Amino acid sequence: MGTMPPSRVRALRRRLLDHYDRHRRDLPWRSEKDPYRIWVSEVLLQQTRVETVVPFYRRWVERFPTLEALAEADGDEVLAVWSGLGYYRRARHLHAAARLVRDRGGGLPSEARELRALPGVGPYTAGAVASIAFGRPEPAVDGNARRVLSRLFDLDRPTAGGLEALARALVPDDRPGDFNQALMELGATVCRPRLPECGGCPLGSLCLARERGTVARRPASRRRPDAPRFVVGTAVLASTEGRFLLARRPEDGLLAGTWEFPSAIAQPRESAARAARRAAERWLGGQAPSASPRAAWAIIPQAFSHRRHVYHAFRFGTVAEGSVEFRGMKHPTGVVERDGLPAWTAAEWVEPAAAGRRALPAAQKAILRSVTAEHAAL
After folding, report:
1. Cβ neighbours, 10 Å, residue 186
2. Cis (ω within 30 of 0) for the bond into 219?
3. Intra-chain end-to-end CA distance of the chain, in Å
4. Which of 3, 132, 230, 373 has a CA positioned 20 to 30 A from the CA of residue 316?
5. What is the CA radius of gyration of the chain?
C-alpha cells in the first residue's frame, strides 16, 4: 500500500479542502448539525445516486424529523416513506437502530465502534457519521473514495482493509468530516470512473496514476457475473367493490415487508400467465379465477443488485371479497419462497387511491399506475 511523506500529506489535505470549499455541491444534509439527520443521509446514500436521494431525504425528514419520531413510527409507515428507493433492508435497519438508541435512553453514539454495533451500520457509515456529525478523525471509504485513493497511489487491486488504513493515515484531526466528504466529492465530480477531469484535479500533481499513465486502469474493474433474469407473473385481482388485493411479502428476503399484487416467479417451462394464475389461485382456494388472462396488460422490468425481474401483470375477472381468505403460507420454517411463491404474511383489499400509500416497490407502483388509469377510464 502506498504512503506519502508528511509534507505531501499536508499538501493533499490543504488542496482537497480548498477545492471542496470552493466547489462542493449544495446538498440539504450538508447544512445539518443534527447527528440523526446526517446518519439518515448516509444510509440513504448507500448504493444510491445523490440526485435520487435528495427528494427522498426531504420527504424522510419531513415525516420523521427526529430520531424519536422514527423510533415511534410504525414499521409499515417507515417502508411506505422509503418506498421506491430500493434496498428496503436499509430502512428496516434504520428503524430498528432508532428504536435501540431510544430504548437505551441516549443519543446517537459518537464513536465509530459504538455506531458499528447498531443494525445496518458498517465501516463506511460508522466512519462517515463519526467524522461528519461528531468531528472524530475516522476514515469513510465509499466507492468514490476508493477510486480516488487507488489512482492517487496507483493501486491495482486494493483491499478494503488496506484502503481504510490508508484513509485513516490521511484524515486530519481538524475538519475530518469535511475531508471525507471532499474525498468522496472529488470522486463523484472530478475523478470519475470514465472521462476523469485530471487537468482540473486539485491533486493532479500528487497522483501517481496520472504520472504513470494508469488512470484508466485504476482501480482494476471487477467483472461481475451476468445477473440472472426471472419472469414474474403478477395477478391483479379486483373485487366487485372496486378494490384490489395486495399481499405483504415475508419479513426476510428480497423486498422484505413490502406489498405487492400477488406475484409468482415462473418456473422452468412455465409461462408468465400460468405463474400469475398460480399466484391468483393461492387466494381463491385453488379455484380458477373468473376470467383467464390472455396477453399481459403491463410488462414492467425491475433491476436489483444481483438479479433482474420482468413483471408480466394480468388482469383477472372481479371476485367477491368474501371468497378470498388469508390463511397464511405453509412454507417450512425459514423458507421465504417456494416454487416462486413468497410466504406472504398478510393480505388486504385496498382502494386504488390508498394503495399508493403502501410500501410498494417500483415495479408494483408502475403496475398500480396502469391499474389506476384503467380504473379511472371505466
Report:
1. 25
2. yes
3. 66
4. 230
5. 25
Distance CA 144, CA 186 (A): 8
The Cα–Cα gap between 206 and 11 comes to 9
Q: What distance in Å separates the CA atoms of residue 275 and residue 296, rounded to the nearest whole number?
A: 12
Instruction: Tell how strand 308-315 and strand 229-236 pair up.
Output: parallel
Residue entry with cell 373468473: 290
Q: Which residues contact 233 (CB under 8 A, 6 or more apart)?
A: 263, 264, 265, 266, 271, 272, 273, 274, 275, 276, 277, 278, 279, 312, 314
Q: pTM here?
A: 0.84
Comparing CA positions, the residue from 270, 252, 249, 245 lying closest to residue 323 is 245
Closest CA to 148 of 94, 189, 99, 104: 189
To the nearest 10°, report the CA torsion of 30, 35, 37, 42.
70
The answer to whether residue 42 is catalytic is: yes
Helices 176-189, 123-134: axis angle to 10 degrees equals: 120
Crossing angle for the helix pair 123-134 and 35-45, nearest 10 degrees?
A: 150
Grid cell locating 357: 400509500
Catalytic position from the list 32, 42, 164, 211? 42
pLDDT along the chain (378 residues), means of 10: 79 97 96 95 92 95 97 94 89 96 92 96 97 98 96 93 95 97 97 94 96 93 83 92 91 89 95 91 68 72 90 88 69 73 89 88 91 62
| Buried b / exposed e along 50-70 (16+ C-beta atoms within 10 A) | beebbebbeebbeebeebeeb
DSSP, collapsed to helix, strand or coil, labels residue 344 as coil
Question: CA-to-CA distance for 20 and 284, rounded, in angstroms?
Answer: 60
Query: Residue 107: helix, strand or coil by DSSP?
Result: coil
